[in-house]
Amino acid sequence: MVCRGDIWLTNFNPVKKNNEIGKIRPALIFQNNELNSAGYPTTIVLPLTTSLVDNAEPLRFRVNARGTLQKDSDILIAQLRSIDNGRFIEKLTTLSNDELQKIKSLLDEILT
Questions:
Q1: pTM of the entire structure?
Q2: How many Cα atoms sit within 13 Å of 88 on the Cβ side?
Q3: Tens digit of pLDDT for each residue in 76-101?
Q4: Cα–Cα 20 to 30 A to 27, which of 14, 81, 90, 112?
Q5: Dihedrals φ, ψ of 32, to 5°?
Q6: Closest residue by Cα to residue 48 from 14, 82, 72, 19
């Protein structure tokens, strides 16, 4: 089961438009654990990229390599999306509560 704060290797293919995230890449599970454990068929995620852009908040949040996340990555805050649970491949690592709170505040910043 996926949990909020986990980063999973995720299959984002196929892509329908050029501005949509594609490929197999890590994604942060952002959906709450109540839905994650309820058997809901989709999960809200934020994709990651290794194409780093410095000082890009609130659109990006840097995550250092850890666990089996092999490279420093940026979480793409503005690419929030819901995906089918069958797209998850393997768990790579988990973020801290402080990191999740910062990401939530960045998301709030771009949505309000």
A1: 0.93
A2: 23
A3: 999 999 999 999 999 999 999 999 99
A4: 112
A5: -70, 155
A6: 72
